[in-house]
Amino acid sequence: MGGYLPETIVTNDDFTKMVDTSDAWIIERTGIRQRHKVAPGQRTSDLAVEAARVALAAAGRTPEDVDMVIVATTTPDMPFPSTASIVQQKLGTRPCAAFDVQAVCSGFVYALTVADGFVARGIARCVLVIGAEAMSQLLDYTDRGTCILFGDGAGAVVLEPVEGEGTSADRGILGFDLQCDGSKMDLLYVDGGVFEDSNRIGKIRMQGNQVFKHAVHKISEAAENAVIKSNLSMADVDWFIPHQANQRILNGVADKLGLDRDKVISTVAMHANTSAASIPLAWYIGVQDGRVKPGDLVLIEALGGGLTWGAAAIRL
Ligand code: ACO
């Protein structure tokens, strides 16, 4: 695993200078205390490359070993080429498969599932899966309901087939559940894009309490499905590494699933919601501080714009 956070930190107090809010309100409703923000000129691909380098070093691999790059992002450097193409060039891998996955906050769950399929079928031998976001670029800094929620960062994982210890059937993704309900896209979207007359990228628009209402129910259902499909039970889960949207959602899902809160890896206070980057970043922190170890059963889940949502149970 690898992770990277840009140097600039934006505190809750910084937002009190922009909108009618307070540190106490933000902490009470979201658990967020601070978030990181890209420096001028720093792009999503730059965050992705930093996280990828850390992950490759941890895996004892070099860019030469990589045969597939998948970037989950909703803040690509540009409409095309894909951020994965740019990352491939900046990292200096050999020519190999490279593409983006766009499922907003659920992007990492989708991307990891895609990558796992390539590895399990023997098509790829060293896949870099990166979640990277510069959400600050999509924020309306006059909308207090959204601007306080998000942060920038990247997380990455190196995926390889298992050799000599167990079989591929008992490692990697054991069960997953991916979902989308496009009829609920109005709850969370960006009001711009290539078809906008004004030719602007747009900003995040969200019905926060509606998203909240769907989140706990849908995420819990997907997480249960992922564990059932793995022929395991919640009691087998060593670490719950959810998408880091809001501490109240994290607690609600953990309680609904009957998971001890000590098993929840939470970074929302320090990173805020980094969309597709939040799960690999939290996972990286869990590995770094010694909690998450080889052999552990990890349960990941996310919900985001689309609405998309999903979960996966993974044996490390
Ligand atoms: N500071 C102070 N007051 C605020 C702020 C703020 N930053 N933001 C909203 N309020 C106000 C609202 O204007 C409203 O005021 P009013 O009663 O005068 O109209 C009041 O707080 C209550 O608003 P609600 O939206 O009902 O507040 P809620 O308790 O639902 O909290 C929040 C809002 C934090 C956005 C919550 O709905 C939430 O976290 N939703 C999930 C959204 C989310 O995480 N989205 C990320 C992408 S999807 C995902 O990752 C799961």
Automatic annotation (TrEMBL):
Residues 244-248 are annotated as: ACP-binding. Keywords: Acyltransferase, Cytoplasm, Fatty acid biosynthesis, Fatty acid metabolism, Lipid biosynthesis, Lipid metabolism, Multifunctional enzyme, Transferase. GO terms for cellular component: cytoplasm. Residues 229-315 form the Beta-ketoacyl-[acyl-carrier-protein] synthase III C-terminal domain. GO terms for biological process: fatty acid biosynthetic process. The keyword Amino-acid biosynthesis does not apply. Residues 99-182 form the Beta-ketoacyl-[acyl-carrier-protein] synthase III N-terminal domain. GO terms for molecular function: 3-oxoacyl-[acyl-carrier-protein] synthase activity; beta-ketoacyl-acyl-carrier-protein synthase III activity. Its EC number is 2.3.1.180. It is found in: Cytoplasm. It is an enzyme of class 2 (transferase). Belongs to the thiolase-like superfamily. FabH family. The last Arg residue of the ACP-binding site is essential for the weak association between ACP/AcpP and FabH. PANTHER family: 3-OXOACYL-[ACYL-CARRIER-PROTEIN] SYNTHASE (PTHR43091), BETA-KETOACYL-[ACYL-CARRIER-PROTEIN] SYNTHASE III, CHLOROPLASTIC (PTHR43091:SF1). This is Beta-ketoacyl-[acyl-carrier-protein] synthase III. The gene is fabH.
